[in-house]
User: What shape does this take?
Amino acid sequence: MVFTVDPRASTKRLQRQLENMIRSLERPREAHKAASIVMHNFVIRNIDSGGELVGGWAPLAESTIREKKRIGKSKPMIRSGALRNSFTPFDTDQGGGVRSELFYVPFQNFGTRKIPARRLIPNERETLKEVLPIYAAFVKRAAKKAVGIK
Assistant: This one.
């Protein structure tokens, strides 16, 4: 018995599979949503840990320490919870992330002449570490779906 393979048939099948994969990859909204939730959790954990996820924050000024002691608070960046609760995940067809509408978030995150930077939001390296597994899984699912693997 002799088996032959028609390379044109294999090429057409491969082309169809690649086209299916490309169509799947054109709809990354689910991955963007998952990534935005992971980043939101990062920001919350970072605030709760006093900035440990971003290498720590500058110490509080003595006047701030006294005021926090007076009101019964001790953690940096947490007084009323408004800052922590202001962060929300968002996603679009183009990407996802975390945002806050509080006007003073940039002052806290980047600092001013009088306020040292206390980074709330992850930098690019920290973001990639958190979200690359999500996008890798997205691509893997698209590839499996394209070739009919469950």
Notes: The mean pLDDT is 87. The radius of gyration is 24 Å.
